[in-house]
Write a structure and sequence with these properties.
The protein is 29% helix and 21% strand. It is of the alpha/beta class.
Length: 143
């Protein structure tokens, strides 16, 4: 049996639900960008149910051009208005996840590609299972 066969075998009938054509906007209006690491349970971390948020995953949870494309579509077509970034300690893709998270927050603050950047928050998931909020550089610089 392959890994894909095992996944299909353990899904329950409740896992399959018809798609509601009128519910394309996530209930929370939040898009989450997180690392693809299988140990990172984004849905359980935020107690997400189907329809609650857009979840975009890639290596490191980095704000790459592809992630920006997905966020832009999430906002323009999906109705999201807030962004949450999640990086994590012990990441195979990043040497310094906290520093990269600050970089990603700065990229989001500076990009002209997103119409909604008023609420952008970044979190580092620790080895101990805690979420620690990380602030962007612009928030730490006195005016």
């Amino acid at each position: 049996m392959t890994g894909a066969d095992e996944l299909l075998a353990r899904r329950g009938a409740a896992a399959l639900r018809p798609l509601d054509p009128d519910a394309k906007t996530p209930a929370s209006r939040v898009a989450v960008v997180a690392c693809m690491d299988a140990r990172l349970g984004v849905e359980s971390m935020f107690a997400l149910r189907p329809g609650d948020a857009h979840v975009i995953r890639n290596a490191g949870g980095c704000v790459t051009p592809d992630a920006l494309d997905s966020l832009r579509l999430s906002q323009l077509r999906g109705g999201t208005r807030e962004i949450v970034l999640v990086h994590h300690e012990d990441c195979a893709a990043l040497d310094d996840p906290a520093a990269d998270l600050v970089r990603c927050l700065d990229v989001l603050a500076e990009t002209p590609r997103l119409p909604h950047k008023d609420v952008v928050r970044g979190f580092l998931y620790t080895r101990g299972g805690e979420l620690r909020e990380i602030r962007p550089r612009r928030a730490e610089t006195p005016s």
